[in-house]
Amino acid sequence: MNVIMGAAEDIARCVDQIEAGLAGLAGHLVDPSAVAFDEIREHFERLEQVVAGKSYLDAAFAFIAQEADAGRRVGSTKVVDYLTKRLGLSTAEAWSRVSQARSLFTPPEPPKPEPVEGSESEGERVARERAEREAQERARREREAQERMREKLRKEKAAAERLKLIERELEQLSLHAVPGRHVIYEQALEESRRRSPEDLRAWVRERVRHANAAGRRPDGARDLFAALRKRRIRFSRPDADGGVAFSGYLPADSAAKLKVALDPARKPEHLASVPPEEDKRTLDQRRADQLDHILTGYLSGEGARPGGIGSIVVSTTIDDLDSLSLDSRFPTNTGDLLNPLELLRLGAAGTDYLCLFDKDAVVPLAMGRARRTATLEQRIALLAAELVCTDPGCDRPETDCDAHHLVPWVQGGRTDVENLTLRCRKHHGNNNDARDGSGGMGHAERDPVTGRVGHRWAGAADVEVNDTVAQQRSAADKLRRRGRPGEPPGNRPGESPGDPSARPSGPSSDPPPDEPTLFDRSA
Predict the structure, then answer these.
(1) How far apart are CA 101 and CA 258, in angstroms?
(2) Residue spans with biased composition (Low complexity) (predicted)?
(3) Most exposed among 194, 299, 389, 523, judged by the fewest C-beta atoms under 10 Å?
(4) Counts of helices then strands in the chain (DSSP H, E)
(5) Global pTM?
């Protein structure tokens, strides 16, 4: 007890000294313009290093608070609530300190041997015992790394920004990664002394990638569910406009399903009430619209909402509607505040509940949507005829392409197969609908001789078609080559493989090697 009281008294004195020191510094800087930079520069550089040491103290106190079940001091079972209410921290900062506390002070859990089912052979027993010894050795290294990491942090005062960066990257570490969390953390602290924050992030990310790849379960098998365990979706609090940011992590199969589900968003005409040429939505905005369309369809299915789960309830009164304005906001059971436009859009689902509470009225709102797009049959016909983008040299597949009107819809062009072609996002945006060569821009056009769609470069006399290997896999091209038996894919008549002269003569349309993937492409 005396030792604890002595420590508490010393800590109180230290805090008093810090408080007095900060007050003294602030007193000297009442008028910063009166202080010479070169005279105080070194002192403030040292101050930054001193203050960096608080990161260790913050984590240590968070650990002490957690062990003491400090949340109870504020009527909660969560230490985070104590940190936010008594220390005035944001929830994000509180969680960050708790995470740091666990990394520094919570002992790594010893490995748990998997139970043996039935009898095992001598070879199986030997392999199991070897795996258990290896797991115990990894746990020992983790404990030692944690001790070294803690001592290093206490002495070297690593900046909070770098510690948070390391923590964020280590969130992607798999359960059975080799090496584990504390070993990588210790190594990252050493690297943080000589790397910029951006380079440190890249270093930790690469280290985590290798550790995940090397990870094995106690039985020596690959952990096939590592990505599945990391799945998550997170929502932010509504911002000033009522919108919500969300992020997440999906295993490969879920990511593939999401990409396919959002794939229609790449069509400018999809879910638009205006012609593609007048649609000013970005690709990201069209994806958001497609996601909303999917959610509306899901909520419209009665079988998808057992027991009322998945229902949106909007609470309002007749008086609220009588005084309706653009600034009106209506509360929902999800915690989101909806303005009148959002209310109408929500009503478009036709199945979510819009409850207008008055004496005896419950009035549902609903509105329709208009949309214009190429039909499924037309998309199939384009797939058979072209398979990929028809810009010369491009091999973007149909799923990465828009259905482009050769004669623009606003100029009377019809939405039929004869007036459509596949154009990837990049080359669709490069098309000059005026067909006047202005700005050096060419346009998609159907060759009057062959009937194939290609590209007419600005000022060119002929239409150049796409003869990439990818395009030659199309059904139409295979039919065209029926009369040329033995011709290997990838060669046009009279050309040899790799012949530079066989390359398109117009400007290169090959995407750069580092072109972002579908979800990274900007509009």
Answers:
(1) 36
(2) 492-508
(3) 194
(4) 17, 11
(5) 0.47
